[in-house]
Specification:
The protein is mainly alpha-helical and about 180 residues long. The chain has helices spanning about 1-20, 25-30, 70-85, 90-105, 115-130, 135-145, 150-160, 170-185, and strands spanning about 40-50, 55-60. Strands 1-2 form a two-stranded antiparallel ribbon. The chain is elongated. The relative contact order is 0.18.
Length: about 180
Amino acid sequence: MMENVSAIIHKHIYFAELYISVPTEGAALFNESNFKRQEWNIQTTSGYGSTMPLFIYTYEKIIEPIRPCKDGDILKFMRKVIDKMQLATECIIISLIYLEKIMTTSKIEVRFTNWKPLVFTSILLASKFWEDICFWNVDYCDNLAFYPLKSVNRMESEFLSLCNYDIYVSKQTYNQYYQAIKESE
């Protein structure tokens, strides 16, 4: 099940990268660099003046290169979140429903630069929708250490507002997705 969902997400990424040359504003909103802690390269030089020590330093932001993801990367990421948080398998399908919902309602494409925050947030919201006893955002931060709490809260807020706070999934919609994913095996 998870393999098929990750393959579907990979197709979305592939087609967005192939056919949409410039990321939309919504896609840039979920760029992973917006949510990760910034890393800096700091170089120091020390010496002594005539009366006091002298410290000179420079710093520059470390920019991570954009890496194309493979189907296995998405599967590994999803598996880590689902297994570590002990979520029900139904959350996988619901997260795909949410991801495709935000793609259609808000015209956000899933790209190499934003797939992790989008998939993470869709799984987080799916678990809150489906699970009887759901985790707090801080639990995701502590157990997974992908993003700081402030970033997780912001991702969830942005995702919900772009979905117009409509995260209800009907039985019929769930069954349609379930059957389509089962048939793709």
